[in-house]
Amino acid sequence: MISVESLTKQYGSFTAVDHVSFTAATGRVTGFLGPNGAGKSTTMRVMVGLTRATSGRVTVTGRDYRELVNPGLEVGVLLDASAQHAGRTGREILTIAQQTMGLSRTRVAETLARVGLTEDEAGRRVRDYSLGMRQRLGIATALIGDPEVLILDEPANGLDPAGIRWMRDLLRGFADQGGTVLLSSHLLHEIEVIADDIVVIGQGRIVAQGSKAELLASAGTLVRTSDPSHLDRLARALHEASVVTTPIDGGLRVDADPELVGEAAHRAGVVLRELRAADGAGLEEMFLQLTAETAREGAAA
Ligand SMILES: Nc1ncnc2c1ncn2[C@@H]1O[C@H](COP(=O)(O)OP(=O)(O)OP(=O)(O)O)[C@@H](O)[C@H]1O
């Protein structure tokens, strides 16, 4: 488990992380989501002792990361896949990790196989790796010590769709065996397919957190009608029942569950073309709204 308690990080007078609190639970994949510059990397750097907190506390498996004697055996970390030594081969990098952590030599080949890097690829220099291969090598370095916790900053960066599916399966398997996974991304869809729990950060502050199911449920219902005048009638009926609606392309997003919306449509004599729980689209809308103040596009408008 990872526990972040009222973490604040200031750079001079600028507050990059502002009283952030959340936990990443054992057996779950927690997605840490936020727009560029929201404070995700800073929070993760504090977690692994690379940056000092101004105030607040982070514990990983109940302790401060800097207290861990052989941290790689407890926490696997991938913060920047391009920070690996470009002149070394993938196998050399993993061998150094294996020796530093005092692991058996067989772990190198086992871990290479686990992340899908071939013998041939492992013998190439990292400067000749694709971004996706660097990510796999970074994940291998994080996994080699068989840790309980994984902390991964933008691990899907550069992975193709098959690579993203591979990573999802790997992280799912890791969590199902009792591991804790925290991964960051500024891409909603990535987090949506991989995470069980989601923490949303904007401008250094937590703006939403909960299980993916809860957050998706709070995204409401999408409803469309073939006849636009029916949509207006439905919107009026819902407003009279104090239900909030937001116009979307050719329809409405309603802050209520589909059953209630279906009943309201029936009472108002409205024929529906589409009625469903708002999924990713709703979550994306929520994410953009929650982080609008911080988004460059929003700020510029
Ligand atoms: N060493 C530093 N000195 C001053 N400001 C910093 C420093 N490191 C980070 N910041 C600022 O803190 C804020 C948060 O940055 P951070 O890298 O944590 O964001 P992020 O959520 O990881 O963004 P991205 O998705 O773009 O990687 C940014 O405004 C950044 O410019």
Salient structural properties:
single chain; 301 residues; alpha/beta; Rossmann fold; Alpha-Beta Plaits; 2 domains; 6-stranded mixed sheet; binds adenosine-5'-triphosphate
Explain what the structure shows.
By secondary structure, this protein is an alpha/beta fold. The chain has two domains: 2-211, P-loop containing nucleotide triphosphate hydrolases (Rossmann fold), CATH 3.40.50.300; 220-278, Alpha-Beta Plaits (2-Layer Sandwich), CATH 3.30.70. It is 38% helix and 25% strand. The chain has twelve helices and 13 strands. It has helices spanning 40-47, 90-100, 106-114, 119-122, 131-143, 161-176, 188-194, 212-217, 228-240, 258-268, 280-290, 296-300; strands at 2-11, 14-24, 29-33, 55-60, 75-78, 149-153, 180-185, 197-202, 205-211, 221-224, 245-248, 251-254, 274-277. Helix 2 packs across helix 3 (106-114) and helix 9 (228-240) crosses helix 10 (258-268). The chain starts with a strand and ends with a helix. The mean pLDDT is 89. The structure holds adenosine-5'-triphosphate (ATP). Adenosine-5'-triphosphate binds at residues 11, 14, 16, 34, 36-42, 186.
Using only C-alpha atoms, the radius of gyration works out to: 23 Å
Strand content: 25-35%
| SSE ordering | EEEHEEHHHHEHEHEEHEHEEHEHH
Reported CATH architecture of the largest domain:
3-Layer(aba) Sandwich
Instruction: Indicate the overall shape.
Output: elongated
Unreliable segments of 5+ consecutive residues:
none
How many β strands by DSSP? 13
CATH topology category name of the largest domain: Rossmann fold
Q: Quick one: CATH class of the largest domain?
A: Alpha Beta
Largest sheet: 6 strands, mixed
Strand order of the largest sheet: 5-6-7-3-8-9
Measure the end-to-end span: 40 Å
- The secondary structure category is alpha/beta
